[in-house]
Amino acid sequence: MDAVTGWWDDYFWGSMIVLQVFFFSLLLMVLFGLIGAGAKLSDSRVAQKIASAYTVIFRGTPEILVILLLYFGSAIALTAIVQVFNPDVKFVDVPPMWAGTIAIALIVGSYATETFRGAFLGVRPGSIEAARALGMSNLQTFIYIRIPEMWRLALPAFGNHMLSLIKDTALISIIGLNETFFVAKQAIGTTGEPFTMYIVVGCIYLGFSTIITLSVMGMEKFGARTGEGAR
Amino acid sequence: MTNSPSDALIQMINVDKFFGSFQALTKINLEVKRGEKIVICGPSGSGKSTLIRCINRLEEHNAGRIIIDGKELTDQVKDIDAVRREVGMVFQSFNLFPHMTIVKNLMLAQQLVRKIPKAEAHKTAMHFLERVKIPDQADKYPVQLSGGQQQRVAIARALCMKPEIILFDEPTSALDPEMINEVLEVMTDLAREGMTMICVTHEMGFARSVADRVIFMDVGQIVEEADPEEFFNNPKSERTKAFLSQILTH
Amino acid sequence: MNFDLSLVTESIPKMLAGIGITFQLMALSAVLGLILAVILLLMRISGKWYLSWPAQVHIYIFRGTPILVQIFIIYYGLPQFEFIRDSVFWPILREPFGCAILALTLNTGAYVSEILRGGVLGVDHGILEAGSALGLSARQKFIYLTTPIAARLALPAYSNDFISLMKATSLASTITLMDMTGIARTIVAQTFAPYEVFISLAIIYMILTWIIQKTFGRIEKYLSRYVNP
User: Fold this and answer.
1) H helices of A42-146, where?
2) Higher-scoring residue by pLDDT: C94, A162
3) Which of C76, C170, C199 has its CB closest to that of A64?
């Protein structure tokens, strides 16, 4: 493990990049998931079709392919757009971080779509009816009854989605994001100890996964405090 | 204390059962003779299910002795299997094997436990399905049958093992009212044929007509034990009276 | 920016040449992974800490780290050690194919083990009690009651994991294996036409996903025949 000594700083900053990607992709993932679920539950046939296509495409395609397509594809698209205004530009480089963040958010968002949809439908109609019968408005019912119930139903799957996101950040190294994986590759170049360097990466990810798992468990306990109906 | 097997089929001596710190059974003493029909009743949580579940060791008792047909229930696994072969059980929620047809439900334990050849097991299964009056359902799956039919299959499944005694754990509590009688009829037939039975049930009509003895339990103890005539017309304990007035005015 | 259809028709047959490798990776690691999953499951429910503990550690590690890291540790990492290079496993670990199979097996084994455990825990307790009351031994109950019922309960989740496995085979391209994704990346590097090539490949994978879903749907229907007859 002596070989790692000079590299802790780099691993640390690599971890910060993992966290940054995780954080932004988490926000986007929730957004995509909510939009997808909303579209699937809407009355519009077109919206339903688009949402179904979204989930079929992103759940049926390997993650690495989505990342590659978004990275190279967006670079080409952007280049084409820029060339309209300035024909001298040869190539526009898209930062791997943004292409990657959007890509993994799109992938996991397609799973979250089903989670959110299921949670929405899983709210017991009795609770809603009871709230109405007590004279609560639509908005009040939504905020005080539906959202808390949905949250409780969606939480276990949502925890898994967060784990997928953190693990998928590793794939972004393929398009050159300088996160921990990238650090390991550099370190191997000078130290010649691939096992050691990749094990460090594994440990970093294991640490992140553990933190996520523990926090979800904590939240589940909090959400299950009402007991009844928790499954 | 004599241990004559022909006389007492089941002996429970000072049996205690704890769930953690909660005492579910306290100093239970019970003797059941061959051919006897016992009905156990009492409020929910009184320990009546726990009592019969101790008899075939679905629950382990913590103190006292349970002797079945001369064999004492101990930690020895062999003994438990031998005892379970003699003791049939019918559950409140039927517990048929959902992934097997009715006739396979009846054949499985015969083949695995009693090592009976397939053809003979099938014959026995059909014989008992006829006795519970549903031979035509043999090739269906449990979910396709009504609750009353499922419970009759469960009784037939227990009978296929040729047990010395059958334990009934609230066999009609999960049934719709119109199906209760078809199950009670089968149980009454069994009683007439001399089967030894212990039934946990609130069907007081059944208790009156079939039971040799009625036992009333409360908070893990046997409160009162009497023949049905005596039990219903002249209960001694106040708790029994309160329970009977509740259940009979329903 | 225009979509070159001729490039699509050219590259699809080239990529399909790699479908054999994709299938081999998928089938081998699915079978080996299922065996591993069952072993891990039996270890976990054995009630013996010295069996259940290692199984839980395996599951924790392989579910808690990215599969890409696992592939790299096995392919690039293990040869760091001399004793590995001298061992009988070296002929397998030297090849990217062997490493990919090993990584995918260890990974899917961990996930599937948890899925199977969910199925086992989902078996109605009363059914097992009925088995006990009829005198069935613990082993007989596990074989004749728990296994068939748990298999049905676990199947939907298992089919999802199977699709994940199929998608994960594409990561073998990162350790120089020429599966469909590996070939596609080579074509893109030569032509720099990511849209045409990657979209065509995505469609191939989607068709595979669809076939897997349909197949498992059939199996599920068969196994559920006693639930909704």
Assistant:
1) 45-60, 63-85, 96-122, 125-133, 138-141
2) A162
3) C170
Give me the residues paired with residue B127 across strands. none
Q: CB–CB of C130 and B99 under 8 A?
A: no
Q: What percentage of chain C exceeds 70 in pLDDT?
A: 98
Give B144's contacts in chain C (Cβ within 8 Å).
Answer: 229
Any CB–CB contact under 8 A between C141 and chain B? Answer: no
pLDDT (tens place) for every residue of chain B, 250 residues total:
444 445 788 999 999 999 989 999 999 999 999 999 999 999 988 999 999 999 988 999 999 999 888 888 887 767 787 788 889 999 999 999 999 999 999 999 999 999 999 999 999 999 999 999 999 999 999 999 999 999 999 999 999 999 999 999 999 999 998 899 999 999 999 999 999 999 999 899 999 989 999 999 999 999 999 999 899 888 888 999 988 888 876 5
Q: C229 near B99, Cβ under 8 Å?
A: no
Which residues in chain B are contacts of C145 at CB distance < 8 A? 97
Interface mutation target, options B95, B108, B113, B166, chain C, most CBs of C under 10 Å? B95
| Tokens representing residue B37 in the block | 């029909």
Asked if B32 and B38 count as a contact pair (C-beta separation under 8 A), the reply is: yes
For chain C, which chains pass the contact test of at least 3 CB pairs under 8 Å?
A, B
Instruction: Classify domain A2-230 by CATH architecture.
Output: Orthogonal Bundle (1.10)
Q: Rounded distance, CA C78 to CA C94, Å?
A: 9
Q: Which residues pair with B221 in a beta bridge?
A: B218
Pick from A51-55, A66-70, A108-112, A130-134: least confident: A130-134
Interface residue C152 vs chain B (CB under 8 A)? yes
Cα→Cα distances B171→A49, B52, B187, B250, Å: 51, 13, 10, 19
Helices in chain B by DSSP H: which ranges?
Answer: 48-55, 77-86, 102-112, 118-131, 147-160, 177-192, 204-210, 228-233, 238-248
Locate the chain A residue with the closest alpha carbon to C211. A60
SS3 track for A19-37? HHHHHHHHHHHHHHHHHHH
Give the one of A57, A181, A210 whose C-beta lies nearest to C206's C-beta.
A57
* Summary mean pLDDT of chain C: 92
Which of A63, A195, A202 has its CB closest to that of C80? A195
A209/A215 Cα distance (integer angstroms): 10
The minimum CA-CA distance between C49 and chain B, rounded to whole Å, is 22
pLDDT band at A230 (very low <50, low <70, confident <90, very high): very low
Name the helix (H) or strand (E) containing B223. strand B221-226
Supply the angle between the helices A63-85 and C194-223 in degrees, to the nearest 10: 150
Separation CA A73–CA C10 (nearest Å): 19
Closest Cβ opposite residue C194 in set A69, A174, A197: A69
Give the tens place of pLDDT for each residue, C19-67.
999 999 999 999 999 999 999 999 999 889 999 999 999 999 999 999 9
Select from C167, B235, C209 the least CA-distant residue to A56: C209
In chain C, what are the domains?
5-223 (1.10.3720.10)
**Which residues in chain A have their CB less than 8 angstroms from residue C73's CB?**
195, 198-199, 202
CB contact under 8 A, A69 and C163: no
Q: Is B87 within 8 Å of chain C by CB?
A: yes
Measure CB to CB from residue B161 to each of C127, C134, C144 and give the nearest one.
C134
Residue C122 at interface with chain B, using a CB cutoff of 8 Å: no
CB contact under 8 A, A170 and C210: no
